[in-house]
Amino acid sequence: MDKDSFTTVFQTELEKAGFSVIARNDRLFDEPDRVAADYLIGATIVEASAKLCAAWASFGDFDQIKGDIELAMEWQIYSRQQRRVVVAIVSRGGIEQAHFTKGGAGGLFNEVFKTHIHQFANSPQFRNLIVVGKEGD
Fold first, then answer.
1. pLDDT digits 0-9 by tens, 41-96
2. In the chain, at which residue ranges do the beta strands (DSSP E only) sit?
3. What is the pLDDT of residue 90?
4. CA distances from 22 to 28, 38, 61, 73, 91 (A)
5. Which partner for 64 in 40, 52, 71, 100 could form a disulfide, CB atoms 3.0-4.6 Å apart?
6. Which domain of life is it from (predicted)?
7. Cα–Cα dist 22/72, whole Å
8. What percent of the chain has pLDDT over 70?
9. What span, in angstroms and rounded, lies between the C-alpha atoms of 23 and 36?
């Protein structure tokens, strides 16, 4: 699990939803002239809870895992033109993997991250700003 993995998942999921994405994960709101985007999006995990079990952990194999992960994330949309955060959204939720599945903890975190991306992208605040073009609640 690393920020590059989260960046890839974020870009892939938003592109599947029909949005153009320029992925960066360093110095998010700094140096806006280097990025050809109207808005910059940042996400912070503000709460996390995980209960995980690795099938073969005693043998050093953490690839097959089951359990549940709950997250709360704060998303911020920064306007390059206004030079400020114009929308903040909190997403909450998690997933439960009842059966051992390959991919380890990173794979499970990526899956729960996808659910948060979908919440974010389908929120009225995101849709109003990005699709309609207006700030709002």
1. 999 999 999 999 888 878 887 888 899 999 999 999 999 889 999 999 999 999 99
2. 39-56, 61-79, 84-102
3. 96
4. 12, 10, 35, 21, 22
5. 100
6. Bacteria
7. 24
8. 85
9. 11
